[in-house]
Amino acid sequence: MKANRFKKIKHILSQRQPDLTVLMDNVNKAHNAAAIARTCDATGILDIHAFAASETIKITQKTSGGVKKWTRIHHHESAGAAIKNLKQKNFQIITAHLTENSVDYREIDFTQKTALVVGAELFGISCDAVQLSDQCVHIPMHGMTQSLNVSVACALILFEAERQRKEKGMYGKSRIEYEMYKKILFEWAYPDIADFCIKKNVEYPDFDTESGSLLKPFKTSEFL
Prior knowledge:
The protein is α/β, with parallel strands linked by helices.
């Protein structure tokens, strides 16, 4: 592991926001799922949640984009189940959906523990997601169109969240619990060894979290 590479990995991980996430409610197009994942990575999101009505959509969500190494996707049986799970973890549920009671997305305090729910143009937001939301938000528009592409809308809202959080200093130091931070740091720095350990159900080898060096050589032959 080169020192500059490990330093960059540590810097990126230290800015991850464990209390900001996105729930993709049946986002069915690969380019939209990929764009949402890239925006999540760019705004410091580690965990992405998703519901897919079909196996085809689930595969699309899992494989789209080149940032899946840096983000983790969690699939749920339904949007409602995902939201209930997030609410149990004290996330406020903010849904991008125009209603009579929706508010300008910039009125939301995104420094709070927040899950943003977005849906695809083909299906829209599910009824469960709307009913279980704490607040629906919209993006003010001044033209004939009433909606944006889901990945564009998601990006606008997440970068507002990033702006608010940056002003509050929430990207200034790691906010991930240390043992989880160490686990993810190893997986990012040594993905092949991590995959091998997971398959063989063995613990990750010890490593220096400052330099990235393994404390002793790791030999896969020892576990074969």
